Fold this sequence. Notes:
Structural class: mainly alpha
Radius of gyration: 16 Å
Amino acid sequence: ISKKGATQIVMFSGIMNATRYSDILSASLVPFLKEMYPHGHRLYQDNDPKHTSKYIQCYFEANGVNWWKSPAESPDLNPIELMWGSMKNFIRDKLKPKNLGELKEGIRKYWSTLTPEVCTRYIDHLQKVMPVVVQVEGAPSGH
């Protein structure tokens, strides 16, 4: 997500690894960055090993992706975590899918609600969380 909205969603089956992650980045993130942020951007992601592997670091360098390293174990500082929680609640509480097709449709439906304004609210939440994270010396903020 970004203050200009969400990237195209990519759904897959199977196990995620660095190679598959780079394929997803090529299909959605890199074109989005080139179109929406031609003069610069910052990518914030968690420290999952497939996100931080040498393979992905080389991919970022080759594709001009400006990755900001994040502190370890810092979901409070990652706006996408708020979005994932909201999507899970939407699907579980409102849609209640009964099969894989309904689940995928629910994900698409939720993703279509991610306007620039909605994404900006998730990102701007950091302004509320950062002082608390500093105050608790990096411990979970409860936000």
